[in-house]
Structure formats: structure tokens, C-alpha cells
Design goal:
- By secondary structure, the protein is α+β, with helices and mostly antiparallel strands.
- It has one domain.
- 50% of the residues lie in helices and 19% in strands.
- It is built from 2 helices and 5 strands.
- Strands 1, 2, 3, 4 and 5 form a 5-stranded antiparallel beta sheet that branches.
- Strand 2 and strand 3 form a beta hairpin.
- It is elongated.
- The termini are far apart.
Length: 145
């Protein structure tokens, strides 16, 4: 009788192994399309972000290609340095889709950035109006560099 029980125990463990093997095979077959759908979704969202960054970089390069004097002159036209001054000259037209906003102001490390003095440094920031300045590109440019 003891021998018969051990045979019965072996038969049960063999059946469980087949169940596990079958479930692993089915899981592997069903995961392939799910992972492909996930991969295409992730690739689609990252390409949109990359396209936005390219647009910001292009606008930043366009602004930085201007002579320093033109940028410096714009800090006066944009309202001075009491607040971050949006440049209407270098920003995209108001109301346009995917409007890129350019902010220019004179920079001084001793006064928390904003300055009314001629420090020879300008702060330039470019961002999409719809996103706000959270994903902005920023740089400092100098007159004497």
C-alpha cells in the first residue's frame, strides 16, 4: 500500500509539471503581441518629445546667430529687467500653433540673475508657450567671449 501511494504521488507531480510547462508556453506566446504594442506606444511618445526638442534647438540657434548688440538692444525693447522679458522680435508670432517664446534679459550673478546694469552677459531662454518654461532651453551669452 505504501508503494501504491508513492506511485500516485509521482503521477500528481508529473501532471503539475505539464500544467506549468503549458502555462509558460501560452504566456510566452501571448506576451509577444503585448510587448510589441507597448514598444510602439513608447516609440511614438518619445518621437514627439524629440521633435519638440529639435524645434526648440532650432529657435535657440536662430537667436544665438544674431549679433550680441541686437540681442542686448532687445532687452530694453522687451521691457527692461524687472521681470523676465519676453522678446516679441525673436519669439514666434502670437497666436501661432506651437509658438516658441524667447526670453531675454541682462544677467548679473550678484543680483539673482536680473540686472539693469551692463554686465556683458545676456540670459536667453526658449520654450513652447503651451508647455510653459518647465521644458525650456536656457543659456548665457557674453559680449566679450
Amino acid at each position: 500500500m505504501l508503494y501504491a501511494d508513492s506511485k500516485c504521488s509521482l503521477a500528481r507531480s508529473g501532471y503539475a509539471y505539464v500544467e506549468v510547462l503549458l502555462s509558460v508556453v501560452l504566456l510566452g506566446i501571448l506576451l509577444v503581441p503585448a510587448l510589441q504594442a507597448l514598444q510602439s506606444g513608447v516609440a511614438g511618445s518619445s518621437s514627439a518629445i524629440a521633435t519638440q526638442q529639435v524645434g526648440l534647438r532650432a529657435k535657440m540657434e536662430e537667436v544665438l546667430a544674431k549679433p550680441f548688440y541686437d540681442l542686448y538692444k532687445e532687452t530694453y525693447a522687451a521691457g527692461g529687467n524687472t521681470t523676465s522679458a519676453v522678446s516679441t522680435t525673436f519669439s514666434d508670432a502670437a497666436g501661432s500653433a506651437n509658438r516658441r517664446v524667447v526670453v531675454l534679459y541682462r544677467f548679473d550673478t550678484g543680483s539673482n540673475g536680473l540686472s539693469n546694469n551692463d554686465t556683458g552677459l545676456l540670459y536667453v531662454q526658449v520654450y513652447y508657450e503651451s508647455d510653459g518654461s518647465a521644458n525650456a532651453l536656457s543659456t548665457l551669452i557674453g559680449q566679450w567671449w
